[in-house]
């Protein structure tokens, strides 16, 4: 029945143009595309193809408004795609609720996770999803399909696909309309009849796996904790979902595993589970409406998982839940389906595929469709299954991951934006999913370590961490393998991870039956060996594994043991090898081009053959050897290699593509296992060059003993000179004596300070030599790059790559994941080497800096003493000059006095004046001489101080302290350090030897006043 007005509610909107395509659809039931199923995916696909000018027939079993308990939440990514396809208006006028994110409640503790906003956008620009009554949304989509110019909607029941018996190409579909058979033909038949598809089993080697069911309640006027959000309630059991589907209606979906003891009929069934397990975990504001809804009928729906497969059947495409299903926990089914429609219409656009009956082009586009859709479908598929494993945790490791996931959400920022962006179909990158999933795993390890006694924390980090990581791999690994259409090799992490159904047991038992001789079997199948070897495609399918739903299904492989031999000819039958002779025996069966295997043999024909009397002279001799060794893995491996080689070299294009992929893989492999690039490290040779500039300091301290001895003797000489002046009758004698005593004490203090200075210089030089020797030993502990193993190099390279892309390290330092990895696995060899170099460099620079600062501080004290002594010299010189003038004046007075004229001058008095003047001249000369010695010391010390200031400036230079300036290997740095150490060591040893010789070999010297002068001064005192 072709509906122009299928129901009273839709009668006003059905209108079609009477053109040729419409006439072929209506009268001849012929179109370019026949779509089975007018659900969400079918209607959206029909409208999208119609907009491209394709002629479409849309078949649906019933056009009444469907009443389903799932398919009521469209994520933000799905809303955007729906608007892009021009169907955004279908979300209007159906009392849809805007969804801004989720509210996760874990044992009463809440965390809000909102959809991420675009970078740099305002908070109001966050994307939103929609929740609604499923039936209302589907009816709006059907109305849009009926309005489309090139779409004819038909209410009929599809029963069987029509195929070409030779090629296996699907030509259309056989239907029943009001009990009468009907047929619809198209260049392309699209099957999207939902999770209960009746056509799936024939074309998909997988079967849906059901781990649990959703039991649904409709709450009226429920008071949700966070409006406009989906609520995920986590407790001791499986998760519970709450979300509004209308102004007054709220959907409650309770996940119940298939083997849940609290929901068994013996204890009261599902209502007992709702009352005893679910109700206590709900927020208090929701409990009244939940209890009221429990009085109504509880509906259920299985939560199915079905991995996707490539569409390889010519003339047919399977999309939607008929082809791929995931747990509805994350509400991503419609988002995946609508994005599949957008991608499918893009690949089948008239520009890329002008004719849909071009089977080769369509199959090529279907291969592209299978892999391109994984940007979003694999993310949502894997995320849904992985989150369900965590939220329905039933063992300690999964519980730890569950806690880690919730605490990870509490961190906020990218720890929320990343996961919810993946869940909403906004972020379409599987690597982001892997990053956040294993970040949760490492964070869970850290949380477990902080919850135990600190004594046991290391054991928890190591052993518990490995267990949690393995569980995480087991959770996500099988689904990654299925997304890549490969045989999983991971163990089941829990009872929830079941990949086997009961239907496959008999098939697997038959496939593993041993071979039996032909004489023990009847019919044509007697020559078909029930081989023990698995088919060569076992690594690419699930036919040989009892772990999967479709174990034991068809066999595409030709093995010698599988080839049927012709029956022996009857007796007295001539052996005629001509093509026309005995066509019954000459007939061979070949695999169909698109059937994927051999057709079934006609057993009735073989069994109906009358037995022939054995009267001929022909002898049939057959010999078979049964290999008793376990060669199954080798046979499978060689067959897989052979098939893979054939597939990769089928055409020139695939050969070039395979070579390119192999080259890229080899390049990546070499880059992973090559010696790791050293991390940025400081250049220790620059520090050793600074240490080499300490050589003048060593030479300066070499004459320190002589300088100190001179200062001490000068101090004694000045004191002796003061004592000589003390006994004279000079007017300023007390002042000069006091100044000479102060000068003597200052010289003595200067000698002491110089002794301390030279001792510090020697100690600092020795300290530099010691730290250089220590640095050499530290550098020798670094593992050279040439000695690293392949696994060590791979670990270093992978860690460096993850650090460069910002996963383990950022500009501010290690990330959370990086710190967790460092705590659990420790540092890589490259990191340890870099840390050793930095620590050695910092310690070396610290010693140099302390040495320079010490010398500068002591030099400042010495300069203060020099200034003080210089000032004392000036005062002494002024006093001597003043006293000299006074003595000359007194002598003149004495000579010019009347007494001298009368009785003559006194010889003794005049001689006294001469001696005093001579003594003052001597004091003045000694003062100038000692000041010259002091200025010489001061000049050398000033030059030394300048050198130290230059060194200090070099120490703070970025060229020396930069941590990424090193381009030399560790061996070259050790050689440069050793050379500087040997040079400074030799200079220091020579200086030490000269100092010891000067101290213990030469006699003491004394700078004093000349003997005759001292004698004259002594006699003058008398």
From TrEMBL:
Biological process (GO) annotations? ergosterol biosynthetic process
Localization = Endoplasmic reticulum membrane; Microsome membrane
Q: What class of enzyme is it?
A: oxidoreductase
Give its E.C. classification number: 1.14.14.17
- Pfam hit, one: GIDA
The UniProt keywords, alphabetically, are: Endoplasmic reticulum, FAD, Flavoprotein, Lipid biosynthesis, Lipid metabolism, Membrane, Microsome, Oxidoreductase, Steroid biosynthesis, Steroid metabolism, Transmembrane, Transmembrane helix
Give me the Gene Ontology terms describing cellular component: endoplasmic reticulum membrane
Q: Which intervals hold domain Squalene epoxidase?
A: 186-452
Alphabetized GO MF terms: flavin adenine dinucleotide binding; squalene monooxygenase activity
According to UniProt, the name of this protein is: Squalene epoxidase ERG1
